[in-house]
Design goal:
Helix content is 33%, strand content 22%. The chain has 501 residues and is of the alpha+beta class. The chain starts with a strand and ends in a 5-residue tail after the last helix.
Length: 501
């Protein structure tokens, strides 16, 4: 019997989901479970990898049970994951040495300064496309090897494995300590700052500089090929694991941005704009990242320019959890809509420094422009507008780097349900914003990669047919007002710089 469906594990920063899609990209079933955000110290962010693995098993079982599906109903599964989050575990026991260090974590800021003394912050950019930053995996691996007792000894003995979350999940799914495979794909490997963008292999010189033993690293594979059959959990035993993509690259695939010049922006915990640049990496001189977008089987890799914003939806969560101004994230739209404008209030969410295009590790969060007139509605509006302002910063940098003007911005992610935000995004960009009918583009991209590998989909043109528009927002703001708002945003951003040494 031919399998009717395709599955995707979407392991994100705040939750894990399993989604089953049909051939048209429509959702058949979905299950989701949040995991804890652990903050041991200011600037530190961790996840419990065993909790993530338990949640992964739970959501797979739940989504399959929803529609009484069996393993034979799935042609394959793909995996998409939070990128850069760094984990070390023992290959013999499967036990993590300690909690995973999340991509937002800023504990390695001293390492950025240390490694920048020779060659500056861009000393590895020519090879990796990335500046020295707390963001990427390289310094996180070094920190774990230096600070976890016996870590280096285990690494030297061949007992230690490194992975981003995709590697950990594939290892677990394919058998773990009983024979699991240790791999990653090129999109995730390109975010470690240890892979050479040209060769698509781990770079020996960079490994030596960071003191990372090559034997702990996963094998780099394409984003779309048969990797292994799942052995756990039972609900998908025997199903092919055939796609892996970092979450933002998966969203690019899910939005079917396969041609150079096509771009998408994902509004999630952070905010990430990717522009397909084709089969050659394009160096950035305006604060963007050069990254691998995807590689389908034996075909050439495709690259992207990326603008990464650390805090977007996470700022709404902060307003909810730390200040208690709203009970659910969805309530922010009503609160912000209760005022006509931001009341002169600007919120720069540099909780763990600023990412693109500024790359200021010493920046910290700032609320500027407060007067006694300001109320919680103005603060809520400033929280939403911060995401739109940061997106414009990235769009302008991307246009300067690529020489391509984005005529329209394709958007996805949880925040695109917020109509007030999407209208302000169109207004501050002065160009239309388009939301697709299928908003689960990240999981869909992983499913597409897996489906292409096993022949469930015939090619990328078949995937393009699945894409359709749900809603568009057109700019309606006067030029003078747009310019004034953006000028004050930049003034607020400048106040966040160099808060820490």
């Amino acid at each position: 019997m031919t399998a009717e469906f395709i599955g995707a594990i979407d392991q994100g920063t705040t939750s894990t989901r399993f989604i089953v899609f049909d051939r048209s990209g429509c959702i058949v079933s979905l299950a989701q479970k949040e995991h804890r955000q652990i903050f041991p110290q200011p600037g530190w962010v961790e996840h419990d990898p065993e909790e993530i693995w338990r949640n992964t098993q739970d959501v797979i079982a739940a989504a399959m049970a929803q529609k009484s599906l069996h393993a034979g109903d799935l042609a394959a599964i793909g995996i998409t994951n939070q990128r850069e989050t760094t984990l070390l575990w023992n290959r013999r026991t499967g036990a993590a040495l300690r909690n995973a260090i999340v991509w937002q974590d800023a504990r390695v800021a001293d390492g950025v300064v240390e490694f920048s003394r020779e060659g500056g912050q861009d000393r590895f950019r020519a090879k990796t496309g990335l500046p020295l930053s707390t963001y990427f995996s390289s310094l996180k691996i070094r920190w774990l090897l230096d600070h976890v007792p016996e870590a280096r000894a285990q690494a030297e003995a061949g007992d230690l494995l490194f992975g981003t979350i995709d590697s950990f999940l594939v290892w677990k799914l394919s058998g773990g300590a009983g024979g699991g495979i240790h791999i990653t794909d090129v999109s995730n490997a390109s975010r470690t700052q240890l892979m050479n963008l040209e060769s698509l292999e781990w770079d020996p010189e960079i490994l030596s500089v960071f003191g990372v033993q090559p034997q702990i690293l996963p094998e780099i594979r394409s984003s779309s090929e048969f990797f292994a059959e799942a052995r756990e959990p039972v609900a998908i035993r025997g199903v092919a694991i055939a796609g892996i993509l970092g979450d933002q690259q998966a969203a690019l695939v899910g939005q079917t941005c396969f041609a150079p010049g096509e771009a998408k922006n994902t509004y999630g915990t952070g905010c990430f704009l990717l522009l397909n640049t084709g089969e050659r990496p394009v160096a950035s001189s305006h604060g963007l990242l050069t990254t691998v977008a995807y590689k389908f089987g034996a075909k050439a890799a495709c690259y992207a320019l990326e603008g990464s914003v650390a805090i977007a939806g996470a700022l709404v969560q902060w307003l909810r959890d730390n200040l208690g101004l709203i009970e659910t994230s969805a309530q922010i739209e009503k609160l912000a809509g209760g005022v006509e404008d931001n009341g002169g209030v600007y919120f720069v969410p540099a909780f763990s420094g600023l990412y693109a295009p500024h790359w200021k590790a010493g920046a910290r969060g700032v609320i500027a422009g407060l007067t006694r007139y300001a109320n919680k509605g103005h603060l809520a509006r400033a929280v939403l507008e911060a995401t739109a302002f940061q997106t414009r910063d990235v769009v302008e940098a991307m246009e300067r780097d690529s020489g391509i003007r984005l005529d329209v911005l394709r958007v996805d992610g949880g925040m695109v349900e917020n109509n007030l935000l999407m209208q302000f995004q169109a207004d501050i960009l002065n160009r239309p914003v388009v939301r697709p009918a299928n908003k689960e583009t990240t999981a869909l991209g992983a499913a597409y990669a897996a489906g292409l590998a096993v022949g469930y989909f015939g090619g990328i043109e078949e995937l393009r047919v699945n894409w359709s528009v749900d809603r568009e927002w057109w700019p309606s703001m006067e030029d003078l007002k747009r310019d004034e708002l953006y000028k004050l945003w930049h003034r607020a951003v400048s106040k966040s710089f160099d808060w820490t040494d």
